[in-house]
Every structure is written in C-alpha cells, then in structure tokens.
C-alpha cells in the first residue's frame, strides 16, 4: 500500500460532519485491518499446503488447497485495494484534512510514514480533556479541603491560635495538679471525684452502661431523688456498679459524670481502660433510656447544643495531645456546673435567644482553648453563648460548622469517585 | 418533674380581664416562636364541710381547696394555705368524699386554655372561669422549663424567661401584667426537687391573688 498525495478533497467526505467522517474512517480502517489479517491467514495456508505437498503419499489435496486459497487471497487483496482507495479519498492516508478548519478540533486518523496508524487521536484528545478536568477537579477539591481544614480545625495550623478570649474573672488555680501527674485512668477519675463535691464520677464496662441507661427513670418521680449513685434501682446487685473501684481499670469503657440537678455527661473510651475518649454526650439529669450513651442525643435543645459543642472540644483536646485528652475533657465538663446559673460573659444574661436556631438558651459555650495554654489547670469561668459568634468569633466553631463537618465525608466520597474514574 | 412557675394576670386598677387580652397574650407567645400543642384544663374547687351542727363550722379551716391537674390525671391535690398543708391523693377521693357526704363543693373554677412549646420551654395560657358560667374572672400563665427539676437552679432561668415574655407583652400596651409570687415551699415541707404538689401550692396562691383582685372590683359571691 503506498500513499498518494492528493489535494482534492472528496465530494462525499465534505458532506458529512467531521465526527461522522472520523467514524467512517475508523470503520474503514477496521475493515482494512480485518482484511490484512485474512491475507496473513491465507499466506499461512499457502505455506501449509506447500509443506503438505512436500510430504509423500499425498494426492491432489495440497493442490486443491492452494487453488482455494489463491482465489480467497485474490478477493482479499481486491477488497483491500478498494478500502485503500476509499481511505485515500477521505484523506486518512494523507495530511490533507489535518489543516482543515472545520474539523471541530478533531483529527482524522492518520497512517504515518512508518506504517503506524494514529487512529485514536480524537479519542486521546477526549481522554486528554477528561484528564485535564480530573486534574482541575482534584485541584479544586484540595483547595476546598484546605479551606475547610483551616476553618474547622484551626488548631492544626500553629500560627492561627486565637488570642481573643481573656479570662475576665480570676480563675481557680490548682497549683498541685500538673497535667503530667495524671498518667493513669484511675488517677484521673479519682482525682476528679476528690476535687469536686457536687459531681459524681462513675465508671462502667460498656455493656453494663447499657443496662444502667435503660434502668434510669425516664420521668422523674419522688422515689428517684436519690439517683446519684443508683444504689436503689432494681438490678443493682447484678451490675458492676459505677463507683470507682468496683470495675477493673482496664475494663472501663464508659464514664458517667453526674452533676445533680444540672446534667449527666457520658464519655466513651476507646480502647477500654485507656485515657483517650472517642465520644461525649450530655443529657438532662432526669433523662433515662437506652438512647443515653456517648453518641446519643438528648431530647432537650440545651443539652443537644452542649453536646455538639463538646464534640468540637473533644477533637481539639485529642488534636493537641491524645494522652491528656481525657483529663482536659473532664475538667472542661466540670466547668458546666454553672450552666443554668452563670450569666453569659458577653451579654450578661442567663437566658437569651440564640440567633442561629431562634431558641431560647442558657450560655452553652465554655471556652476550651485557654485550658491548655497555661501551665497549670485554670478553671475557665467564662460562660458564653452563640449570640457572640456571628459577630467576630469564627474560631469558636459554630455548631452549624460542626454539622457541615459531619457531612463532609459524604462530599469527599463523591470527589474520590471522580478521581477513581 | 420539670420546674414550673404559675403566674397570674394583674390588671391595672380600674380595668378587668376580657378575652381580648387573652387573645393578645396568645398572639404574643406565638410571635416568639411558640408552637401550639393543644388544650389544657385544671379544676380548682372550694370545699366546705357538711356539718349537722353548724356551730362547729368555726373549727374547720376557711378555705379547703381541691385541685385536679392535667399532667396527673390519676391524682387529686388538697391544699390548706393557712395551715401550710398540701396533700396528694388518688383521684377517687372525690367519689369518696361524695359518698361519705363529708365535704361539699362550694365553688368550682376552671383554668383552661392553650399550650405552647418554645424550644425547651412549655407555656400554658389560660382563662379562669367558674364552672357553670362564661364570666372570665382572670388569666393565668404556666411557664415550665423542661430539662431540669431543681427549684433553685431554675430560678434565674425562669426569671429571665418571664422577663422575655413581659418584654414582648409590653409592646402590645395591655392594661396589666403578669405577676409571680413564689410561695415558700419549705413551709409546706417540700423539697427542692419540683413536683405537682409545688404546682398545687402555686395554684392556691394564684387563687388567693385572683380573689383579692376581683374583690377590689366587686365583692365575690359565694
């Protein structure tokens, strides 16, 4: 097959749109390839027939084979010539169409001087575009991720530690409680119980907590006023009860912090017996039921808000240093003793309308950052509310941002699926 | 049980309550995102002893109140304000009293109205009408903070919530305002943990206030 330089563009080719031309050219090339394969096969049969004729005791069989094959080969070659002519006419075998302006940016398949068929130029072009868009999408995804990381986890960027929150009241300083002192889980729990008169610290194995939460009364009656340790509820003998010391330290998986008349906080440890919390949730002291667990949600708005916020605090404590996370988390929960009695440091009221949700709430925010910047533990007595957020305090992570963070993995899944394509 | 305050409407001197004021109050609650939940009704009854010898009447307390509350359908509450006594009984006590012919109902008043929910708060607005009459004698409002049950811890929250309500109401220029008088629960032997008995005492206090208010305008007929 030789190439002929033809300048004239065939009449029928110009009638079709470029994509159709490309498709037709591809089809013709496919046919040519099939014919070439047939010709190769025919040549093999010729050789076979000749080989057969070389052997003794053969009749006319090889001669018949040769004759049959000869006619087949003639036909194949004729067809190939026809296709060759058609391809020439459509401009595949020369470069006439490459410089055409109305080719829609598509290149016709080209047979190069060395015989290689550049038949996939247009496909490669589209693939190239897909590749380019994947790169763009990745770039956008990375940009979005970095932006959200900067917004929701500013503590991971060391330069962005905020200096806005000042402790306006003198804080309670406990000099002898250095954070490095609390190494073990039991030390932390016992230390906490000793220093707070109002708070009860109870520890459970994971399944025991389920039994305990189910047995808590869901509507309070006079009998359950003494619920603090739970000695009076039925089934107490069967459970390994909460008070520290009854459960082996390496099996403790759930910690309950009960501040009478204020709240009940449930903290889950993972792995059991360690000092790394993985979930925390707040409930009313009157709530009971199997939905009371470290990932459960209270039926009351105020505790729902505190829970949302506490998840951010937990992530913050874990991000700084995992070993001390539980200690700081417990101290921070303790600061909620005054949830219903201490006024907001920004607006001076105990109750006000939260702008985001239009709910009437007490101050649900207790700052947690300052707890780690000082060398010793200072109880933060500032109480704040969401009313302050919208003005200037993006570093306080509105609960809506936390909600968006929870949805982030779903969006990421869609990003990843585009990359994998 | 969640902490509750029972407030009564104190009309300005020379004015009386009417249903228009009640409507305005209801609208006001709805304006601050109150969601209507349903109706409620409590019944307060003044009892007097049935005595053969009327001379003994002086030995019996003047105001013996009985109260049925919507949140406790199986209970009935008795209050003797003068003696600081509150008692929780089964609701069948009314039948028993009737059969024994020991006490008779002198006057019965209905506290009825609509219940609203505002986030963690529950508000009930209602009118006070005698059982067999449509003549409105007063307006009451119940405010309840659902998450916690401690009387002490809730005090500030309740006070501020009432402030929010009063602020909203003051914009409507109504002839009067809500007032809350906190009874001394300890005198009745009750604890910090809030119960329906606390509610009963509050209703008795409110009743006394309503009587005083009405008597300013006209003497109350027995």
From TrEMBL, chain A:
It comes from the Eukaryota. GO terms for molecular function: transcription coactivator activity. It is found in: Nucleus. One of its GO terms (cellular component) is mediator complex. InterPro entries: Mediator_Med27. Keywords: Nucleus, Transcription, Transcription regulation. GO terms for biological process: regulation of transcription by RNA polymerase II. Belongs to the Mediator complex subunit 27 family. This is Mediator of RNA polymerase II transcription subunit 27. It comes from Nepenthes gracilis. The lineage of its organism: Eukaryota, Viridiplantae, Streptophyta, Embryophyta, Tracheophyta.
UniProtKB/TrEMBL annotation, chain B:
Keywords: Activator, Nucleus, Transcription, Transcription regulation. GO terms for molecular function: transcription coactivator activity. It comes from the Eukaryota. InterPro entries: Mediator_Med20 (IPR013921). Its main location: nucleus. GO terms for cellular component: mediator complex. GO terms for biological process: regulation of transcription by RNA polymerase II. The keyword Nucleus applies. Pfam families: Med20. It is found in: Nucleus. Component of the Mediator complex, a coactivator involved in the regulated transcription of nearly all RNA polymerase II-dependent genes. Mediator functions as a bridge to convey information from gene-specific regulatory proteins to the basal RNA polymerase II transcription machinery. Mediator is recruited to promoters by direct interactions with regulatory proteins and serves as a scaffold for the assembly of a functional preinitiation complex with RNA polymerase II and the general transcription factors. Component of the Mediator complex. Belongs to the Mediator complex subunit 20 family. PANTHER family: MEDIATOR OF RNA POLYMERASE II TRANSCRIPTION SUBUNIT 20, UBIQUITIN SPECIFIC PROTEASE HOMOLOG 49. This is Mediator of RNA polymerase II transcription subunit 20. It comes from Nepenthes gracilis (Slender pitcher plant). The gene is MED20.
């Amino acid at each position: 097959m030789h190439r002929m330089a033809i300048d004239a563009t065939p009449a029928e080719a110009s009638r079709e749109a470029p994509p159709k031309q490309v498709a037709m050219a591809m089809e013709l090339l496919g046919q040519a390839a099939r014919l070439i394969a047939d010709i190769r096969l025919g040549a093999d049969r010729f050789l076979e027939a000749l080989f057969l004729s070389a052997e003794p005791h053969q009749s006319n069989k090889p001669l018949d084979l040769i004759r049959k094959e000869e006619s087949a080969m003639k036909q194949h070659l004729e067809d190939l010539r026809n296709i060759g002519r058609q391809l020439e006419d459509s401009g595949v075998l020369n470069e006439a169409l490459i410089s055409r302006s109305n080719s829609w940016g598509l290149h016709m398949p080209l047979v190069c001087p060395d015989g290689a068929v550049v038949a996939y130029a247009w496909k490669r072009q589209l693939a190239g575009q897909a590749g380019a868009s994947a790169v763009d999408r990745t770039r956008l995804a990375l940009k979005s991720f970095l932006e959200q990381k900067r917004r929701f986890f500013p503590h991971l960027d060391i330069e962005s530690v905020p200096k806005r929150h000042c402790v306006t009241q003198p804080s309670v300083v406990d000099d002898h409680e250095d954070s490095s002192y609390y190494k073990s889980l039991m030390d932390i729990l016992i230390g906490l119980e000793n220093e707070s008169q109002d708070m009860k610290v109870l520890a459970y194995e994971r399944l025991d907590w389920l039994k305990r939460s189910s047995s808590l009364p869901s509507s309070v009656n006079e009998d359950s006023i003494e619920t603090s340790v739970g000695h009076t509820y039925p089934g107490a003998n069967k459970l390994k009860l909460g008070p520290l010391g009854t459960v082996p330290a390496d099996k403790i998986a759930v910690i309950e912090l009960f501040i009478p008349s204020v709240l009940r906080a449930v903290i889950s440890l993972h792995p059991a017996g360690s000092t790394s919390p993985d979930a925390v949730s707040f409930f009313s002291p009157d709530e009971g039921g199997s939905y009371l667990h470290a990932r459960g949600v209270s039926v009351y708005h105020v505790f729902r808000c505190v829970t949302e916020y506490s998840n951010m605090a937990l992530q913050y404590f874990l991000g700084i240093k995992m070993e001390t996370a539980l200690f700081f988390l417990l101290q921070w929960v303790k600061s909620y003793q005054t949830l219903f009695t201490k006024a907001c440091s920004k607006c001076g009221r105990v109750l006000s309308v939260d702008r985001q949700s239009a709910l009437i709430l007490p101050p649900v925010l207790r700052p947690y950052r300052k707890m780690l910047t000082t060398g010793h533990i200072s109880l933060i007595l500032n109480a704040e509310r969401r009313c302050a957020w919208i003005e200037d305090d993006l570093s306080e992570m509105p609960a809506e941002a936390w909600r968006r963070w929870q949805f982030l993995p779903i969006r990421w899944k869609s990003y990843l699926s585009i990359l994998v394509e | 049980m969640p902490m509750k305050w029972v407030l009564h409407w104190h009309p300005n001197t020379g004015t009386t309550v009417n249903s228009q004021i009640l409507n305005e109050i209801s609208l006001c609650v709805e304006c601050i995102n109150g969601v209507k939940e349903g109706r409620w009704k409590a019944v307060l009854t003044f009892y007097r002893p049935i005595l053969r010898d009327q001379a003994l009447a002086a030995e019996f307390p003047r105001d013996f109140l009985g109260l049925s509350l919507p949140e406790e359908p199986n209970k009935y509450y008795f209050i003797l304000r003068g003696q600081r006594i509150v008692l929780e009984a089964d609701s069948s006590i009314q039948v028993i009293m009737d059969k024994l012919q020991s006490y008779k109902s002198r006057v019965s008043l209905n506290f009825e109205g609509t219940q609203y929910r505002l986030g963690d708060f529950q508000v009930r607005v209602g009118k006070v009408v005698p059982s067999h009459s449509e003549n409105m004698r007063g307006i009451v409002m119940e405010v309840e903070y659902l998450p916690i049950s401690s009387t002490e811890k809730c005090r500030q929250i309740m006070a501020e919530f009432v402030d929010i309500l009063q602020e909203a109401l003051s914009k409507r220029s109504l002839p009067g305002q809500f007032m809350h008088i906190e009874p001394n629960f300890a005198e009745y032997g009750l604890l910090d943990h809030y119960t329906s008995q606390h509610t009963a005492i509050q209703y008795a206090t409110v009743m006394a206030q309503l009587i005083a208010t009405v008597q300013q305008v006209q003497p109350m007929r027995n």
